[in-house]
Structure formats: C-alpha cells, structure tokens
Design brief:
The protein folds into two domains: about 5-150, Sandwich (Jelly Rolls), CATH 2.60.120; about 160-189. The radius of gyration is 26 Å and the shape is elongated. It has six helices and eight strands, in the order H-H-E-E-E-E-E-E-H-E-E-H-H-H. It has helices at about 5-10, 20-25, 80-85, 110-115, 120-155, 160-189; strands at about 30-35, 40, 50-55, 55-65, 65-75, 80, 95, 100-105. The chain has about 190 residues and is of the alpha+beta class. It starts with a helix and ends with a helix. The model has no long low-confidence stretch (mean pLDDT about 85). It has a four-stranded antiparallel β-sheet with strand order 1-8-3-6. The chain has a four-stranded antiparallel β-sheet with strand order 2-7-4-5, covered by helices on one side. A hairpin with a 2-residue loop joins strand 4 and strand 5 (about 65-75).
Length: about 190
C-alpha cells in the first residue's frame, strides 16, 4: 500500500514533485473502501481531506429523516471532505463508496506542515478543494434549475392583488404604528 507518486505527479498535481515534496507526501495515508462502505459519516469530526485515487463515491445528506443525494465524485483528481477540513467543523454529509475505492487521506497536521514548507504544493491542494466545491455547487444548481423554473412560473401566475397584499399590510402596519406613536406623543404633552 504505497502512495502512487506517478499518479500524483501526472494526474493530480500535473507536475513533477521534488524529493522534499515526495518526502512530505509520504505522510498521506492510503485507505481502501468496499462498495457501499461509508467513508465519511455526517455529523462527525472532520479534519481530513480525501483524495480519490480510484473509484467513485456518492455524497448524501440526511435532514429531518430525509436522505438526499447531492453529487457523485469520480476518480481523476477529485477531492472530498474539504468543507470540514477547512472549517474544522463537523462533517456535513455522508460519503459512501459507489464502487471499490482507493483514497489518500491528508490529515490537517500534514497540510499545515505542507503550507509552511511547500507553498506551491499547498496552493495546488487549495485549488483542488476549490474545484471540488465549485463542481458541487454547479451540480446542485443544475438539479435545482427545474424546480426554480416551476416556482418562477407559479409566481408569475399569481394575480397582482395577491402579490400586493403583503405590501399593503406592511404599509398599513407602519401607518398604524406612526399614528399610535403620534397620538401617544400628543397625549403626553
């Protein structure tokens, strides 16, 4: 279970790694997961960044007893767990292996050491985290687009008077408040 530095150089970092960088990256932990095995459990302590070397995972959230699939992450320079890794907070989703996976785990302590000693390597890791987050946001946007289109069409079909009722209510409320305030002020004199 040795780290595949050829893959890291060619596919993940897309550049040759120096001996010093390789020495630091020996601190990565390789973990293997079977299909359907949970890699990250929602609500647990974070602190690790996962680099997907092989396989495919599903990111899912459970809220109020309802499980929602967010995104699938496939091999090829993909990272996950970046939100809790960066924030230091609890994990926000379950990550489950869709197929057998090999994952390199980067601990927060090792990342801090990399930031102190190898800025270019740290930059590439940040770039990968940003790319993963952007990909997830775009995926969610594409999933929400049909729903938002339906909501937008329904809002357009609401009669104007129904849309204006909350505005009229707020104006009446403000006027009543001002009237009462003026009356109280006059009464006090």
């Amino acid at each position: 279970m040795a780290i595949n530095f050829d893959w890291l150089e060619n596919d993940f970092f897309k550049r040759p790694l120096s001996n010093e960088e390789k020495e630091l990256l020996h601190g990565l932990q390789e973990r293997r997961y079977r299909q359907s095995e949970r890699i990250i459990e929602q609500g647990t302590a974070g602190g690790n960044l996962y680099i997907l070397y092989a396989g495919k995972v599903s990111v899912e959230v459970t809220k109020d007893g309802v499980r929602t699939h967010l995104v699938d992450v496939g091999e090829g320079c993909s990272v996950f767990g970046e939100m809790s890794f960066l924030s230091g907070g609890l994990t926000r989703a379950d990550v489950i292996a869709i197929e057998n996976c090999v994952v390199y785990v980067l601990k927060k302590e090792l990342f801090e050491k990399i930031m102190g000693q190898q800025k270019e390597l740290a930059y590439k890791l940040f770039q990968s985290m940003l790319c993963a987050s952007t990909h997830a946001v775009i995926d969610l946007e594409l999933k929400l687009l049909p729903f938002l289109s339906v909501v937008s069409a329904k809002v357009r079909s609401i009669p104007l008077i129904v849309k204006l009722i909350p505005v009229i209510f707020i104006i009446v409320y403000i006027l009543a408040f001002l009237y009462i305030s003026i009356k109280d002020f006059q009464y006090g004199q």
